[in-house]
Amino acid sequence: MAKDSFSKEEKQQIEQAIKTAELKTSGEIQVHLENHCKEDVMDRAAHIFKVLKMHKTAERNGVLFYMAIKDHKFAILGDVGINQKVPDHFWDDIKEQMLLHFKKDEITKGLSKGIAMAGEQLSAHFPYQKDDDNELSDEISFGKN
Question: Where in this chain does the record put each TPM domain (predicted)?
């Protein structure tokens, strides 16, 4: 299972990156990890986005970091509220930085870097509010495969 690919400390590091990023933005960040992705990675990410009910945030500002570990596939998917405001290259810039770490087998570091970058960038369009509700869990979700 994908859950077994990460130590307790690595899981905590990724979840802490989410918590830290969300202190800068009202955006909601989630990470979903699986071992395999048998379809187009963006199609799978869109399916998971829906399963996790990420499209239900008030400002439509959810971000999913999806990864199929054994198949070496990953995607970043932002909701419509974000994509209406950010430049075209927004997600590609983050993916490129993550790939630098993935190529060195630094998966946790790459995910944490991508999450931090997303939080920084989202803060410009969706600043953190004092009364901000954490609408989505900060815990990593894992697929069954």
Answer: 4-120
